[in-house]
Amino acid sequence: MLTSGNGTGNGTGNGTGNGTGNGTGAPHAGGTSSSPLLNHALTTTHDGLVGYWDPDHDLENGRNLQPPTQPHEYGTLGYLTDGNRQSIALGILSSFFRVEAGDSEYACRLMVQGQKVYHLQTPSLTYLGKQLIWVRNYADLRSDRIAEINTQIGDIKSFFGAIMRLDGTQRKRTLEFLHIVQQLTIQIEMQFKHYCWCPRPIQFSANVTPIIQTPDHSSFPSGHATEAFAIATVLDHILYDRANSETSTKHALKDWTMPFRLAHRIAVNRTIAGVHFPVDSAAGALLGCAIGNAVLGLCGEKNVQRTYLDMSDQTDRDGDIGPNKFHQGQDFTTTWLRKPGGEDGNQSHLERMDREFEGDPFLKSLWVRAGEEK
Amino acid sequence: MKWNGWRKHDSIRDNLYIDWRLSQGFHIEEGWDFANPFVIESLVDTFDIESSIAEHQDGKKLEKLRAIFEDELNNGILAPSFMRNKSDLTSQDDIVGRLPVLEPDTVIVGVIDTGIALGHRSTRLPDGTTRFIASWQQSAARSVSGQEIPGQGHLPVGRELFANDINELLETHSVGGLKDGWLDEEAFNRAAGLVDFSNPYGHRELARRAAHGTHVLGHAAGYDATQDSALAKFADKIRIIAVNLPDRNIVGLSGSFLEQYVGLAVARIILLERLLVVRASEDLEGAGLDSENFSFPLIINLSFGKQAGPRDGEEPIARLISKINDTQSIIPVDRGGVFFTIPAGNDNLLQGNSAAELVAGAEREMKWRIHPEDQTPNYVEIWSEAIEGIFSDGEPIPLQIAIDLPNGVAWSDLHKGRSRDDTQTRDGHIDEIENVVRIYCKIKSLKLQNDSNGELIDCFRVHYLLCVAPTMAQDGVSATAPAGVWKVKLKNQHSGNLKFFANVQTDQSAVPDGVTGLRSCFEDEDYVRIDETTGRLLDTYPYSDDEEAAIARARFGRGYLGHDSYKSMVKRHGTLNALAIDRRYSIVVGGYRATDGASAIYSATGFGDRIGRYMGAPTLAMVTDDGPAYPGILSEGARDGSVVAMRGTSFAAPQITKKIAELLVDGVTDLNPKTWINAQSQQTYPDGKILANERRFSQAIDIDKGGRGRFPQSNYRGLNRLGLEDVGD
Nearest to residue B185, comparing CAs of A319, A282, A229, A265? Predict the structure, then answer.
C-alpha cells in the first residue's frame, strides 16, 4: 500500500492523526484531520466566535469558485489525497477492461477496447495432478526461501524497489502508477480465478503441507505471478526507456531483463511455499504481460502486445514445444518464458495487436508524470 | 520383543548397511537394482600394484581403469532409474577426441562434491570459456522429454560434460555474449543437468543460496581472471575436473551408497588424466617430453567423510586412495602424481566416538542415546584393535557384545554360550530383534607390518555393526525402535589387554536443513562437555596460558589428553575423518580461528599416535573461521557473484588444494607436496616458533588437532573480514 495522509503531523497533541487518508478526512491546517476531541473543540470555537449569522451576507464569496480546470488531466487531481486520487485513476483505468467467461474455446478472456488481449483454458484435474510432482520437488528449497515467501505474502513491490529506486518522494508518481496497475490486476485476476476455478495443491495431498496459509481463491491462475509480471511489464518500460519503441515486452522477455527475472522468482516462490502449481504461474505470467501491455497502450504507447495460453494438448511433453503451449508435465522455467520456440530465440509468447489502442487522456497524463521522474 | 539369538548369515553382502536396509524392505523407488550390485572391491583391485607395474612396463598404465568404465560391472551400480544408462556402455577411446588439448605445464584440480556450479566467472577464462576439462553429474537425468541424451554411453549413470559442451551451454544461455554477457543460471543449470526439479531425487543444491561444492571449488580452484589479471596465470594453468555426487537420498543418509559413487568418481578423474595425456601426446612429444612417462599433476579434493569405519585403511575408499598412492610410490613419473586433500572432519564435539582398553576378562558398558522422533536409522560400528594370529572357526569371539534396550528388553547371552549357534565364523553372524535392531558380527583378517623387521604378520579384528530402526515412522506401520539410552556391553575374552573403538555413523535428514535425522550419541558421566564457569563448549585442549594445563602438558607429554579423560569412554581423540588414512600422498586438513589461532572446536582430533595405518593427526590446519560475528569463511555462493560464509573443515582442505596447485604451477614443490609442507613447518624463526604464520599467535596448537601447524589463510578475492595483517609463509 502507498502511504496515504501524513501520519505524524506537526507540533504536539495530534500524534496519530489520519491513518488511511480517504473517507474521514484529509490532512488539515494543523496536520490532523478529524478526531472527537478536535470536533468538540471546534464546536465550542464556533459558538465563541460566530454567534448568529445570516448566510445571505456571505454569498458573494462563492461567486468565483471553479471546478478543476482540466478534468482529464491527472495533475488537476493535486487537490485530492493519494487514496482519493488513486480511486479515480483506478476507476477510469478499470473501465477499459472486461473479463468474459468463455465457452469450449476458452474458459475466460480479457477484452480491452473491443480487442481480445488474453485468453486461456482451465486445466483438468488430471493435468493438475501431473503438476503435483513439481510442488513436491520445489519444497526442498523452502528453508532457503522462507524470508522471501513470508514477505511476499503481502508485499511484492518492495522487491521491485530493490532493482530500481522506488521511494515515496522522488518516485512518488511511478509508485502510484504501479499501485494502480497492481490494484487493476487484482480485480482482473480475481475474475479469472473465479471463472477458471481450480483446486490448490493442498487439496490433492496432505503431504504438500504448505508453509503459508492457502488462500480461499482459485489456484489457477496465480495472482502473484499475474501481479508480478504486470508490474514487471510496466517497470521494464520505464527502466529501459522503451517509450513507443519496437523494443517491447517480447524483447524484454528474451533479454530476460531484471524486472522479469524478479517476477519469475516471485512466482516460483509460491510453488516452493506449496500454494501454486507451475501452470498457475505460467498462466498468471502471460496474463500479467497482457494486462501490462494493455495499460501501456491505454497510456498512449504504441506497439503493445497480446498473448494467450494454450493447454489443449494435455500431454507430458516438455522442452521445445512452441509458443503459448504449456503441457501437463511441464515446469515454469525461464527457458519457457524466454525461448518458447527453442534455442533460436526468434519465437515469443507475445504478438502485436491488430490495431493500436486509443490512448485515454487522463491515463496518458498519469503515465507522463510518472515518466518524468528520472 | 525378544532377541532371536546368533545365526549364520551366509548370503551377507559386502556392504553391511545395504544388507540391513534390504532386510528392512528398503525401496526408495522402482528401478533400483539390487540384483547385481556394484562391487567396490573390483574397483580397488584395479589399482593392484603388481599388475600396475606390469602395465607400466608394457606402456599401458592403468589399462584396467579404462576397462572399469566399459565393464558390465557398472551396470550393477545402485541407482534410481532416471539417472541410469539405458544404452550399452561404450569405449573410453571415443572420449579422447572430445577432450581439450592441455599445455604440458597444466596442473589439474579434481573436485568431488555436491552442488558444483559450472558457470561461475571464477571457473572461466577472460574470454568467457570454461576452465573445466570435464564435469560428471552422477545423478543427472539420462533423458530429457523421453529422449536419451546422446554421447553418454561411456558412463553407467548420469551425464558428463566436456569443456566444449560447457562452452556451448554457456553461449546458449548468456544474454549479450559469452565474454561479457549475463548468464541465465536458472536455464544453464537445468540444461547442464546440475539442477533437476523433475525427479524427486534430482539434484537441487544449486537452486539454493549456498552450495557446498561451489564453496569448496571457489577455495580450491576459483580465479576470477576477468577481475584481476594477476590471477590470469593460475586461471590458465590450473584446470578442473569435477564430479557432482548425487543427492543425499541417493548416496544414503548414512552414506551407505557413498563408496560406489566416490570410488567411481576417483577412478574417473584418474582415467581422464590418462586420456588427457593421450590427447596431448603429439604436443608433448613436440615439446621433447616422453608422453609414455608423462603425467599431469593431479590434486583431488575430497571435502567429505564418514564418521565410522575400521580406520585401518581397510575402508574401501581409504583402500582405494592407499592403493593409488602405493602405485605411484613405486612407479614414479617424470612429472606429476596424484595427491588427495581431505578434511579432518567436524565431529570433534558430537560425542560419536568412544574407545576403551579392557584387561582380560573385563567388561564395560557404553551408553548410546538414540533420540525420540528420529526418522532415520542409527548405526554404531565397533572394532577391536588388531589381534595377532588367525581366527579359527569355532573359537569364542575375543570381544563379546550384549545390548539392553531402553525399554528393558535385555540380551543376557554375554556370559553364556550362544543360544542357537555357538560358533562364529568370519563369514558373518547376526542376531536381531526383527525389524528393530540387528547386530552384525564379522571377523576381518588383515596383515600388519612388524615395525622392527618389516615382516607381515597375520592379524584379525572383530567388527560389530549395530543397526537400529528409526524411533518414529511416518507411515505409522513400519517397526520402530525405542528411544532412550541403549546399553552396549563389551567384554574382553582375549588372553591379553584389548582395545576397542566405537563410532556413531553419519546421519542426515532427508530434506535440506531438515530436523528428522537426529544424530545419536554416546554418553559418559566422566565426559566433560562444557566449562561450567563460562558455559562454553570445551575443545580437546585448553587454549590459554593456564598454569595447570602447562604443568599437565609437561608432565604427560604426548600422553596429555586435555579435556578428554582416561576414565571417560567418550572421547574427542579419534574423531578424525574415517577416510583420512594414508599418510603418503594424502593431506588431511584441520581448522583454526583467524583471530587468535585457536583450533576450531569442531575440527576433529587424531589419536596423536598411529594406530595401524591410521593417521594420528591432521597434516596441517587452515583458517575455517574468520568472521567477527558470523562463523565460517567466505567463498562463492550458489549463484555467480554471490558470496556466502560456510563453516567446517570441508573448506580447510580446498585452501591447501589451491596452494599446492599454485606451487606446482610455479615449479616450487617437487613430486610430493607433503615434502614442502614438512619443510615449511620445520622452518624455525628467531623467536623459536615454527612457521611464519605461527608467530602471530601466542599459543601453540596441539599436534593431534593441527598437525604440522597453522598455515596462513589464502586471501580469497580480497575478502579479509578481519582486516588482519597478511603474514606470508
Answer: A265
**Is pLDDT at B361 greater than 70 in this prediction?**
yes
DSSP 8-state secondary structure symbol assigned to residue A296:
H
The predicted structure's pLDDT at residue B631: 87
User: Which residues are CB-neighbours of A119 under 8 A, at least 6 positions away?
Assistant: A102, A105, A106, A108, A109, A110, A308, A309
Contact by Cβ (8 Å): B562, B542: yes
Confidence of residue A95 (pLDDT cuts 50, 70, 90): very high
CB distance A120 to A107 below 8 Å: yes
Interval B489-504: pLDDT, tens:
999 988 999 999 999 9
For residues A365 and B350, give the distance between their C-alpha atoms in angstroms, rounded to a whole number: 67
In the numeric block, the cell 471463472 is attached to A195
**What does pTM read for this prediction?**
0.86
- In the β-sheet with A108-112, what is the strand arrangement from edge to edge? A97-101, A108-112, A115-120
**Which of B169, B186, B188, B195 to probe by mutation at the A interface, max A CB count within 10 Å?**
B186
pLDDT (0 to 100) of residue B198: 87
Asked if residues B22 and B435 have their Cβ atoms less than 8 Å apart, the reply is no
C-alpha distances (whole Å) from B13 to each of B16, B19, B21, B507, B722 are 6, 6, 11, 21, 52
| Element (DSSP H or E) covering residue B23 | helix B16-23
**What is the residue type of B241?**
I
Whole-number pLDDT of residue B64: 73
Q: What is the DSSP string of B482-547?
A: PPEEEEEEEEE-SSS-EEEEEEEPP---SSTT-SSSPPPEEE-TT---B-TTT-PBP-SS--S--H
Check pLDDT > 90 for residue B341.
Answer: yes
The C-alpha angle with vertex A18 and arms to A12 and A22, in degrees rounded to 5, equals: 155
ipTM value, please give it.
0.75
- On chain B, the residues whose CB falls within 8 A of the CB of A343 are 172
Looking at the complex, report in whole angstroms how far the Cα of residue A186 sits from the nearest Cα belonging to chain B: 28
Chain B stretch 96-155, residues whose beta carbon is closer than 8 A to a beta carbon of chain A? 144-145
- The string of DSSP letters for B413-424 reads -TTS--SS----
Residues 6+ apart with CB under 8 A from B580: B305, B318, B342, B344, B345, B586, B588, B614, B615, B618
Confidence tier at B29 by pLDDT (50, 70, 90): very low
B225-239, B321-335, B354-368 — which one is most confidently predicted on average?
B354-368
Q: B712, B605 in Cβ contact below 8 A?
A: no
- Identify which of A137, A319, A333 has the shortest CB distance to residue B186: A333
Identify the band that residue A316 occupies on the pLDDT scale cut at 50, 70 and 90.
Answer: low
Chain A contacts to B (CB-CB under 8 A): 133-134, 136-141, 143-144, 255-256, 264, 317-320, 329, 331, 333-335, 338, 343
**Can you list the positions of beta strands (E) in B567-656?**
586-593, 620-625, 633-636, 643-646
Cβ atoms of residues A211 and A143 within 8 Å: no
Please, which residues bridge with residue B75 across strands?
Answer: none
Output the nine-digit C-alpha cell for B401: 557384545
Distance from CA of B196 to the nearest CA of A (A): 9
Cα distance between residue B142 and residue B112, in whole Å: 20
Q: What percent of chain A has pLDDT over 70?
A: 86
The pLDDT of residue B28 is: 47
State pLDDT tens for residues A189-205.
999 999 999 999 999 99
Residue position matching grid coordinates 568370519: B426
Cα gap B226→B375, rounded to integer Å? 47
| 8-state DSSP, B79 | -
Please tell me the predicted confidence (pLDDT) of residue B73: 55
Q: CA quadruple A242, A244, A247, A249: dihedral positive or negative? A: positive
Beta bridge partners of B130: B124
